[in-house]
User: Which sequence fits this backbone?
């Protein structure tokens, strides 16, 4: 006697295999300076010894779940106030800067002083064109590149964040709270700016990061949800409404 049992996964059941996450650049005038996100790993660590920390399964498992977004251009800025007491940024590299002052001002800005969490800690924002998308429930968590050693530590902390990229794809930004304004913010092109971690239905699944196409459907959807933060304080309350108009497919891998 033989029995055959077939089980078909339901729509709400955990899926199997790698989770496909797409990345792409939104509108930007210089896409060539924005390198692809890369998986975190101890590139130069010694691995000869069998008990080396660089071979530890727990370490390798953690690193495999982080993707780093690199710094697009050199940044060396200081904080000061103008004659009217308004907060301003100063390009400390001056004429030796690799980026023009007018261009830097379009990329980095200080938020309105009334929006600071603390009166003595300015908040600055670096605009980026990076977008991450998925066609199944995936949350992106943005966090500090804490595994990267900086010879000159940053004088503050970054703002992390967590949101569903299958419903709310939006350009990322680097937001920084400046604790010690007597010290500059110095970042070098190519070094890690921040990490992205992806969460989904099954922690045993891995992430397959692929470059995606900006399709007409994706572009229309991004415009539909874009700018909501300017009108609504709690944008998470709009997720249900966004899902109703979401195209069935957002992620289309870019063709070679």
Assistant:
């Amino acid at each position: 006697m033989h029995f055959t049992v077939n089980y078909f996964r339901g729509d709400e059941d955990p899926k199997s295999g790698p989770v496909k996450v797409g990345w792409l650049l939104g509108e930007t005038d210089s896409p060539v300076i924005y390198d692809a996100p890369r998986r975190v790993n101890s590139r130069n660590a010694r691995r000869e010894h069998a008990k080396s920390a660089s071979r530890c399964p727990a370490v390798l498992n953690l690193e495999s779940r982080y993707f780093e977004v690199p710094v697009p251009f050199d940044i060396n800025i200081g904080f000061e106030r103008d004659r009217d007491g308004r907060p301003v940024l100063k390009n400390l590299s001056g004429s030796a800067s690799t980026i023009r002052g007018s261009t830097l001002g379009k990329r980095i800005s200080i938020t309105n002083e009334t929006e600071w969490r603390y009166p003595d800690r300015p908040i600055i924002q670096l605009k980026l064109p990076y977008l991450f998308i998925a066609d199944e429930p995936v949350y992106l968590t943005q966090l500090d590149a804490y595994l990267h050693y900086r010879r000159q530590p940053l004088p503050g902390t970054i703002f992390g964040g967590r949101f569903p990229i299958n419903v709310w794809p939006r350009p990322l930004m680097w937001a920084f709270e400046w604790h010690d304004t007597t010290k500059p913010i110095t970042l070098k092109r190519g070094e890690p700016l921040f990490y992205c971690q992806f969460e989904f239905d099954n922690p045993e699944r891995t992430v397959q990061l692929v470059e995606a196409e900006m399709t007409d459907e994706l572009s229309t959807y991004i415009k539909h949800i874009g700018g909501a933060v300017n009108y609504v304080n709690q944008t998470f309350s709009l997720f249900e409404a966004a899902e109703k108009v979401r195209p069935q497919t957002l992620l289309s891998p870019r063709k070679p």
